[in-house]
Amino acid sequence: MDYNTSRPLLTIPEYGRCIQEMVEYTITLEDRDERTKAAKTIVNAMAILNPQLKDMTDYRHKLWDHLYIISDYKLDCDSPYPMPERELAEAKPKRLPYPQKDIQRRHYGHIVEEMICEAVAMEDGEEKTKVVEMIANFMKMSYLTWNRDTVSDELIKDQLKELSGGRLELGEEVKLSSRFIDLQDTGKKNIPRNQQNNNRSGKKRNGFNRGK
């Protein structure tokens, strides 16, 4: 038995083993015109096997490149496109560096820390006070994104002071926004009462309250 596991690996598996064997046979043809004619036939077959390539611009160029790659750059024929360079075709993309930052409290993220640094550098005044309040409100929203339980303003103020190294403080009289908490209940508040009753009765009919 001839198993695929004992055969050479496919260069481009999407085209299958038949195309690869046709390419290998074409390389052995001595007559250049015959090789060119066979290469054009193979390219047409490749286009049929992968019709999605037709959505690409200049897809015929792509097919010829694939043909040369399958031949291991050994196919010598008259092509409408030059043979691709092996170094460029096999070049691997450079590894993208992933930014590593030490974040004191990950639920706030590094953006909050950068905002705090900018606020610390501002001159004291009404504008700075408003910016600090905005940062604190954003911190409260971020906190509630990860923890849906309520959070006290005192906790947010303490953590703001901690992250700023004691350089940013909000007075006890400052009340932080609770809009994020209100939004969690908005969906329930906007549903008419009769529709809420219908939803409850529908749940009963569907067997949600069978245990009662």
Describe, in plain words, how this protein is organized in 3D.
With 212 residues, the chain is mainly alpha-helical. It folds into 2 domains: 7-89; 109-184, no CATH class. Helices cover 55% and strands 0% of the residues. The protein has helices at residues 16-28, 32-49, 59-70, 86-89, 109-121, 126-146, 153-163, 179-190, 193-205. Helix 5 runs antiparallel to helix 6 and helix 6 packs across helix 7 (153-163). The longest helix has 21 residues, at 126-146. It is rod-shaped. The two termini are 66 Å apart.
Task: Please supply descriptive tags for the structure shown above.
single chain, 212 residues, mainly alpha, 2 domains, 9 helices, 0% strand, rod-shaped, disordered C terminus
- Order of secondary-structure elements: HHHHHHHHH
Task: Characterize the largest beta sheet: strand count, sense, and whether it forms a barrel.
Answer: none
How many domains? 2
Structural class: mainly alpha
**What is the tally of helical segments?**
9
Between the first and last Cα atoms, what is the distance in angstroms? 66 Å
**Poorly predicted runs:** 182-191, 201-212
Shape: rod-shaped
Rg over C-alpha atoms, rounded to the nearest angstrom: 33 Å
